[in-house]
Amino acid sequence: MMDQPPRIGRLESGARDAITDVAGVTVGHATLADGAVQTGVTVIHPHARDPFLHKAPAAAAVINGFGKSLGLLQLEELGQLETPIALTNTFSVPAVAQAQIARCIAANPEVGRAWSTVNPLVLECNDGYLNDIQRMAVTAAHYDAACAGADAEVAQGAVGAGRGMSSFQLKGGIGTASRRAALTSGAQYTVGALVLANYGVQANLLWDGAPLGRRLAAAQQAQIEAEKGSIIMVLATDAPLDARQLRRLALRAAAGLARTGSVYGHGSGDIALAFSSAYTLPQQPGAPMPAVALVHEALLDPLFQAGADSVEQAIVHALWHAEAVTGRDGHRREALRPLLQAMNK
């Protein structure tokens, strides 16, 4: 009987095997689980300071753009985070963005007046199979609760934004992992990943390289469905990288995603984001810009390996930790672990 998920790759993990192994990063959830409402919010804080005043360098990579996220345009232009990263369902993006703006104004009353406006960042997946998404049940209070509850210990599975998500026709959700990267220069850095997994055709599922999905589909007589889900992949690192290098790191999330059996289908919104906690960029033009010794381009490969491995491991963790959920109109997604246990008896 399998009592642990497979461990991906050869690199060491951080102490928690979570995105929060990158110092300063915290994660919070607000979960709504009431009948037809199965949804929530997950928030990732890049550091403990005000993200508007102390912006984290960041970049995004769109693997397949079937998505409704908000804030990516300015992120691409400026290469900076101005708010925590928020994850939620598709129809709750506006409410969470408004909550981000309100929270920023409360902390910085001159935002939008004497100071520039803030760029909220909300990434989404469609949880409408399990969740009555039309109710738009997520409110500013849920975003605030997720922010207030952010911690280094990260709950995984059917929690926060992952509550109503499906993967490979099973229960998906939130997963996280980390890997340590040793550069040939002698420097060591951590790369952590957090995913919101809501994608996948069951017959295509690869489990540490093994064609598990074929066995599951045969056992359940599952019909092959078109790929129409999504995944958000967030990478954090303590390596000093600029926005251009972070985009290169974000692109390596696609390698980890592909190893699980995704082909980035037409209807799938596959978005990766990477940020560095090694330094921040000041909001005020009178403050000095940091003088940062960046990692040399020729030394990035171990970070790329760590990014791909941590994303694949985070997806495995999302499936492993998810519980079965019944939601809208009696729709149900089974959890993977009981199915594995039954198959391995």
TrEMBL record:
UniProt-listed Pfam families: Peptidase_S58
SUPFAM superfamilies assigned: DmpA/ArgJ-like
Top-level taxon: Bacteria
Gene3D superfamilies per record: L-amino peptidase D-ALA esterase/amidase (3.60.70.12)
InterPro entries found in the cross-reference section: ArgJ-like_dom_sf, Peptidase_S58_DmpA
Family: Belongs to the peptidase S58 family.
PANTHER family per the UniProt record, alphabetical: BLR5678 PROTEIN, D-AMINOPEPTIDASE
Protein's UniProt name: P1 family peptidase
Native organism: Diaphorobacter limosus
Higher taxonomy: Bacteria, Pseudomonadati, Pseudomonadota, Betaproteobacteria, Burkholderiales
